[in-house]
Design a protein that fits this description.
This protein is an alpha/beta fold and 202 residues long. It has helices spanning 29-41, 62-67, 83-89, 104-111, 124-127, 142-152, 160-201, and strands at 15-19, 47-52, 74-78, 92-95, 115-119, 135-137. Strands 3-2-1-4-5-6 form a six-stranded parallel sheet, with helices on both faces.
């Protein structure tokens, strides 16, 4: 069961961004640092990025973060058992993974009222309808991610979160149905294999 949709008023100031990939390069952490620099120095947006997940590699990025002058903007949160609480606090969830399959975390963000800005690749572009249920940027293009995020700050967001919520409910329902069908198919296959084994012993 998912919680009922809760309307939100505008965006926070500073803008609250959430990234769940920790310091993983495959999840887009290095691109995240470039994005943070763009937001601060090119678009002059006040923001905080909460980095959740495995942040054990944060030390090796300390010099780069200081050089980009984004020390105050990047907050290493680490692991959490209640990711939904982070989604509810965030204005925008950043899905910057280079290749995401179904993208369950994207759906969870939508269900919890966080706007999604996603890399237009893999399952993310299948889930997000750009400008209607979230926002996409050109595949692996951090410059475009910055441009889109700046546009989000100037966009009337009424209705987008609600549409995202409704879309996510449908996606979850379809995923659950697919999982159930796959489970039944697997059970039938196992039964047939067992039956064939029994007949072979007769």
């Amino acid at each position: 069961e998912t919680a009922a949709f809760e309307p939100r008023e505008g965006l926070s100031n500073p803008l609250q961004l959430l990234f769940l990939g920790g310091t993983s390069t495959g999840k887009g952490f290095e691109e995240l640092l470039v994005l943070a620099e763009l937001l601060k120095n090119k678009y002059h947006i006040l923001f905080r990025i909460l980095v959740a997940g495995d942040c054990s590699g944060s030390g090796k990025y300390a010099a780069e973060i200081e050089k980009k002058n984004i020390v105050k903007e990047i907050v290493f949160y680490g692991f959490t058992k209640d990711v939904n609480k982070l989604f509810r606090r965030a204005d925008v969830f950043l899905m910057m993974s280079h290749l995401e399959a179904f993208g369950l975390v994207t759906v969870e963000a939508m269900l919890n009222g966080a706007l999604v800005l996603g890399n237009s690749t893999g399952g993310t572009k299948e889930i997000i309808e750009n400008g209607k249920t979230g926002f996409l940027y050109k595949e692996n293009n951090t410059e475009d991610a910055g441009k889109v995020l700046a546009e989000i700050c100037r966009t009337d967001l009424n209705g987008i979160r609600e549409q995202a919520y409704k879309c996510a409910q449908t996606k979850v329902s379809i995923k659950q149905t697919a999982d159930e069908v796959e489970k039944v198919y697997s059970e039938v296959k196992d039964l047939r294999a067992a039956d064939a084994g029994h007949r072979g012993l007769l």
